[in-house]
Amino acid sequence: MATVIIPTPLRKFTNNTAKLNIEAGNVEEVLLDLSTNFPDLKKHLVDEKGEIRSFLNIFVGDDDIRDLALGKTPLSQETVVSIVPAIAGGLA
Fold first, then answer.
1. Model's pTM, two decimal places?
2. CA of 48: how far to CAs of 8, 30, 37, 53, 91, in Å?
3. What count of Cα atoms within 13 Å lies in the side-chain half-sphere of residue 86?
4. What is the mean pLDDT of residues 51-76?
């Protein structure tokens, strides 16, 4: 099972769970599992077309999935998947 790290801002949708073990072969399957088990989380992960939201950074180990195979990035039993929402900021 892959270990999925849920960022603090999204934990309110996972009953304040910080880590989940998910049986998945790739990143898309992780997102599907999360969306199924935590329906309120879905809109924060994927858009209306089912595409991974552009402001969401997902890492498999230390590698950004944008540098790998995106949602098709394969996972192994020992994989750690980190979901990192972008943080907006700027000058006030």
1. 0.90
2. 24, 17, 18, 10, 31
3. 9
4. 96
d(CA 74, CA 53): 19
Contact present, 81 and 2 (Cβ < 8 Å)? yes
pLDDT in tens, 38-60: 999 999 999 999 999 999 999 99
Alpha helices, H only, the chain: 27-37, 42-45
pLDDT value, residue 45 = 96
Q: What is the DSSP letter of 12?
A: G
Distance between CA atoms of residues 74 and 50, nearest Å:
18
Q: Does domain 2-85 have CATH number 1.10.10.60?
A: no
Which is more confident, 90 or 62?
62
Count how many Cα atoms sit within 13 Å of the Cα of residue 24 in the half-sphere of its side chain: 24
- Cβ pair 39, 79 in contact under 8 A: no
